[in-house]
Input
Amino acid sequence: MGYTVFSETPADWRVAILIKSTTLSQQKIQDYYIRPTTWQQKNFIIAALSYDKPKRCSVKAGKECLNELLPDIKEHGISVLMVCDAAYFTFLTGLKAEKYYGYVCDCTFKGYEHFKIIPCPNYQAAVYNPTLLKKIELCTAAFNDYMGNVYEPPGKDIIHFAEYPNTVEDTRKWLIKLLEYAALTVDIEAASLEFWNAGISTITFCWDKHEGIAFGVDRYFDDYANEFAYRPSHAKAQLRSLLKQFFENYKGKIILHNAGYDLKVLVYELWMNSLDDYPNMIEGIKCLTKNFDDTKLILYLATNNAVQNDLALKAAAAPYTGEYAENVTDTSKIPLSDLLKYNLKDGLATWYVKEKYTSIMIQDQQEQFYKEHFLPSVKYIIQLELCGMPIDPTMVQKAKIELTGIVTECVKYFQNSEVIKDFNTARLTKKAAKKTEEARLKAKTDRKTKVYKITDSVIAEDFNPGSGTQIGELLYEYMKYPIIAYTKTKQPATGAKVIKRLLNHTNKAEYVEIIERLLQYSSANKILSTFIPPFENAQQLPDGTYRLYGNVNVGGTQSLRVSSSNPNLTNIPSGSTFGKLIKRCFISPKGKLFVGSDFDALTI
Output
């Protein structure tokens, strides 16, 4: 086990820094972890963590390493560990490191429960992702506070005042009071990411980063039944009417994080009577966007870098709120009291992000761009998302049948190809030999060791054209194609673009057809799995037509372009083999013409 010490006197040692052996650089560790603290270099020792695989450490190997390492650390009276490795932090605490940067955590490793564990990102990752530097600062600050006996977990006592009105009348009184505030953060908890299924489980309004209210709209506490329940329909209607009146009368600024989602749901729930109620949709959008801020966009402009931005509210507010996340995938499974407090903290967190990052955005001279371009775009995108794309479900089913037929035909070809049969036999023979060797080593004897055959159930399997590993073995080991590209993990690339380039490296007709079939299978199968399900989820409007709804995201890219998700509408096939097939699924609304253009199509 490798150690680095800065003092030969064990009495000086107070803290152990645990870090992967391949990144144990004394100079780097001093620069990133020791100098930012208020402690002397001599107070630290560095211990090397071993990995049994280049990119991953198994639980077994991790525990073996710790069982060898921790007794020595304990013997020298050290009880504080700065763990600069996410896997080992989990082994020691059972927690996920990315949620606990800035915390001092209890050790759960048997026999060492008195240890205090401080998670910290590995400095090497921070070299490539500068956003991790802020997290290292959080960790060293937590270390300084703990060692100085002034540490408090992030998020402790941030709520100074909270009210959770439960009745319609109490809620009405509070909404009248809220009209007096110049600015309020707003956040909703909903039952779904699909706006037409979302509802409004709860909503919060906060007037600063310590005070606010939260109340149930669709949910409430039934005093008579003494349980959490869903409000009767008439009470829901009353609350929606009160909320609509509040937003119409409120003269101050509303502040949201990821305004596009919350405002979209509020417009649909409070203004629209149906999916095609476009006049009321416009009124709702005008009302809710007359004076608003989006802290997600502010955060994006204040922290944009060439690697990756983490724009999640909880990540941005973690130094203030700490870890308070709930699994809100299904709000009905969360007790209302917990959901209301969680919702309130989202509102307080939004204030924190607003206060911290607005000044940075202004300092970076991004405020004008934010006000003139980013904020106005939110209005148009909400309208775009609420309108959706007209789609023909009959053509969707025809496309599905055609694509399924292509996939089935390709699979049959692979099953009947002599080349694929020979390759698969060789692959399974190799797999059986490996399994037999593993059994022999486990038994530690050649006697009575099972010899696996390719017909055994644990070995036998058909060639899978969707497996990148099998395709890689087929192309580069069996067919002997040159490796012309690698993945980020340094494995031979098997993406469609790479496979297509391999056509230039063979004259064998059967090899050419295999590659063409692989490309055909890949394209058809991707559309079937990625696009057809959301196409089938298109919603029917009162007039009998259907709309495909998706999400357009502002501030999610390094280039400032918008992105799309669920489904990715910017990635729908257009000029590829199946472009026309997919385009036929989209139709114009009755009495309207469907047109489109792109930059490449423009001429001067």
